[in-house]
Amino acid sequence: MATTKGEIVEQFRCQAIREAAMRVVSRKGYDHVTVQDIADEAGIAKGTVYLYFRSREDVLEKTMSISFEDFHILIREAILRGNTFVERVEEVAKAHLGYFEEQQEFFRLYLAMAEPLGERRLRKHASYRTHIAQLVSMVEAAAASGEVRDEPPERIAIALASVIRDIGLQRMTEKNKRPLADDAAFVRDFICRGIAAPPATPEENL
Amino acid sequence: MATTKGEIVEQFRCQAIREAAMRVVSRKGYDHVTVQDIADEAGIAKGTVYLYFRSREDVLEKTMSISFEDFHILIREAILRGNTFVERVEEVAKAHLGYFEEQQEFFRLYLAMAEPLGERRLRKHASYRTHIAQLVSMVEAAAASGEVRDEPPERIAIALASVIRDIGLQRMTEKNKRPLADDAAFVRDFICRGIAAPPATPEENL
DNA sequence: GAATAAGCTGACGCAGCAGTCAGTCAGCCG
DNA sequence: CGGCTGACTGACTGCTGCGTCAGCTTATTC
Q1: Measured between alpha carbons, how far is residue B113 from residues B74, B98, B126, B138, B188 in Å?
Q2: pTM of the prediction?
Q3: How far is it, in rounded angstroms, from Cα B52 to Cα B62?
Q4: What whole-number distance in Å separates Cα of residue A181 and Cα of residue A93?
Q5: Contact assessment for residue A162 and residue A128, using Cβ atoms and an 8 Å cutoff
Q6: How many CA atoms are closer than 13 Å to the CA of A133, on its beta-carbon side?
Q7: Structural contact between residues A191 and A160, judged by C-beta atoms closer than 8 angstroms
Q8: Which residues of B spanning 4-43 put their CB closer than 7 angstroms to strand D?
Q9: Distance between B3 CA and the closest CA of chain A, angstroms
Q10: Secondary structure class of A148 (helix, strand, coil)
Q11: Which of A26, B122, B123, B143 lies 20 to 30 Å (CA to CA) from residue A12?
Q12: Candidate from A112, A163, A195 with C-beta closest to B117
């Protein structure tokens, strides 16, 4: 009884518009998408967009948030799968890169949000901050159990996201892709041999 | 004889406009700068801008290129200062972060160019590619002498730039800054303990 | 001081886009 | 069938920003 026929139609339309928006943002970038683009992509008139969303910004904001929800869940699960910090990093990298692979549109959306230009973005989109926060708490847990060196957790988290993002970006532009597992392992090694607490002082020659 | 009075004036004006453009790009971001903004910042009329540059894009392009020249020289010198790969990474990080510190406007410009959205930027601005190329050849040299693991040099170079950039970004938003040397050391450790060839198999527990 | 040249100006033309709203039309009800 | 409803449309308005150019101001020359 909660969902009338009208509400179902509304949901369907909203979703169609968001999906169109996602595709267009992928192609043209966040800043350069017009409402007309979105309408064309969805096969409706521009005015119709305004029946379901307050503004251009509203469409893009909601598109962002909803797209990120799946992603957040995926990363959360990846973190839970690992038992040690090293394992968690590998799982996160695998999930991250894998999702980028199958959702190239999302990846471009993610890039658009992560782009740090003027901090405008970083401040604006709560979804991206939530994503970083997930990583921060993972790092904090590892710091508490002595698995990582004593560095600001947020610094490590951002560096982690940064490396994964750029590896993902490179995978995207490569012709003959390396196996995903290899890249996840690369990230794991790259990150962990850098930030893991020294095992038992093997050498101290720096 | 090569430089008439007119040419000197022209050079002076061009420089003033570029400097104004740099400040404005810093504040508003590449995409959102208008020619009027630049003219206002330079204290001249909009039309005057078009006496010295063909278009808005021309102003921004030249601003980019010239700003990057100093930066390229700085990084080249940093690379030459180091004797080992580890030293070079630290020198590069120090130079990088130091330059970001004293040239915050340049840093924001750099962010605007590095933003990978849609590869539009990366393809467009040769300056950024040149910067990456510098790092690639540094990594290649290190790979040749067995100082780094056998991974695609460009991958490592981009990851390196990525980490430095994000550390720089974080420094920028911090209230009480850590000493620059500490952060350069952080980057050095973060990078090198990740990509340095294993010294003499201290442990093999992965 | 007048005449000429050079440099600069900002109002204007034009284009593109966000958001609006009067009008259209398909479907439904009596 | 004829009238009503509401979802949808797309032309329109207002605005912003690029690039132009007729004219103004300042420097230079005689």
Answers
A1: 18, 19, 10, 22, 24
A2: 0.77
A3: 11
A4: 9
A5: no
A6: 8
A7: yes
A8: 33-36
A9: 39
A10: strand
A11: A26
A12: A112
**Tokens coding A23:** 């595709």
Cα–Cα dist B109/A133, whole Å: 27
Tokens standing for residue A7: 């509400």
Q: Quick check: B155 and A186 CB within 8 A?
A: yes
For A104-158, how does the pLDDT look when each residue is reduced to its tens digit (9 = 90+)? 777 777 776 665 444 344 445 677 788 889 999 999 998 888 888 887 888 788 8
- What single-letter amino acid sits at A170? Q
Whether residue B139 contacts residue B148, with contact meaning beta carbons closer than 8 Å, is answered with: yes
B118 sits in the region (left: phi over 0; alpha: psi -120 to 50; else beta) called: left
Angstrom distance (rounded) from CA A6 to CA A12: 10
Number of Cβ atoms within 10 Å of the Cβ of A106:
18
Angstrom distances, CA of residue A184 to CA of A188, B149, B153: 6, 16, 17
Residue A101 to residue A71: CA distance in whole angstroms: 13
Write the pLDDT tens digit of every residue in B76-134: 999 999 999 989 999 999 999 999 888 777 777 777 666 544 434 444 567 778 888 99
Nearest of A193, A151, A161 to residue B165 by alpha carbon: A161
